[in-house]
Amino acid sequence: MHCLFELLFEENIVAPIPSNPTLIVDLGTGSGKWAIDVAEDEKTSSAKVIGIDLSPIQPTDVPENVEFYCEDFIVELHQLDGGRILHESSADLIHSRMVKSGVQEWQWDGLVRRVFHFLKPGVGWAQFTEGTSLSWDGDAVHQSSHLYKVSSLCNEAD
Ligand SMILES: C[S@@+](CC[C@H](N)C(=O)[O-])C[C@H]1O[C@@H](n2cnc3c(N)ncnc32)[C@H](O)[C@@H]1O
User: Fold this and answer.
1) Residue 11 CB neighbours (<10 A)
2) What is the pTM of this model?
3) Distance 22 CA to ligand 1 centre (A)
4) What does the alpha-carbon distance between residue 101 and residue 133 come to, in Å, rounded to a whole number?
5) Residue 100 beta carbon below 6 angstroms from any ligand 1 atom
6) Burial environment of residue 69 by CB neighbours within 10 A (0 to 12, 13 to 18, 19 or more)
């Protein structure tokens, strides 16, 4: 998925964050690939990059400026590492991508408010990316295919 988005956007960060960022947070980091790429990028390597996910599937051999936390970002943002990691007005960028399956509709409002609380006033950015189902022309995708079924179910759910 990370590679797909890299091809699509050509950049990991499209938000115009300040130069020399100090703190970047990735909610629902998954494989951690986005967080690692950002930590290694010379434009953002000044930052500590925090990845949070319910599943501890991230690699352990990572750049020094990357830390992963196995937590629920809906309830635990304030409490990361006993509250030592994320403070009010501290983050240059809070990123989340394709996490909608883990966030119920009624939780988004509170989540966005919390994200705002942690961003540096006036300069911090939130970058949220969510997808919707695929569409195509004519019979390009056969109705018996998994892609067709998944997409139809997503359309129904949207
Ligand atoms: C589809 S994956 C996307 C991974 C990554 N953001 C990417 O774009 O490659 C969604 C990830 O969000 C995580 N996730 C969903 N809800 C979460 C929550 N409330 N707290 C922490 N992680 C969550 C899941 O465990 C999963 O790893």
Assistant:
1) 11
2) 0.87
3) 23
4) 13
5) no
6) buried
Measure the CA–CA gap between 115 and 13, rounded to whole angstroms.
17
For the chain, give every domain's residue range: 2-157
Tokens read off for 19: 């130069």
| Residue 87: CA count within 13 A, CB half-sphere | 3
One DSSP character per residue, 41-55 reads: STTTTTSEEEEEESS
Ligand 1 touching residue 2 (CB < 6 A):
yes
Any atom of ligand 1 within 6 Å of the Cβ of 68 = no
Here the contacts of 73-76 (C-beta below 8 Å, separation 24 or greater) are 73/27, 73/28, 73/99, 73/111, 74/102, 74/103, 74/107, 74/110, 74/111, 76/52
Digits of tens for pLDDT over the chain (158 positions)? Answer: 777 777 777 899 999 999 999 999 999 999 999 999 999 999 999 999 999 999 999 999 999 999 999 999 998 788 877 788 889 999 999 999 999 889 998 999 999 999 999 999 999 999 999 876 667 777 777 888 777 776 777 677 65
Which class in CATH covers the domain with range 2-157? alpha beta
Tell me if 15 sits within 8 A of 44, measured CB to CB. Answer: no
Length of the chain: 158
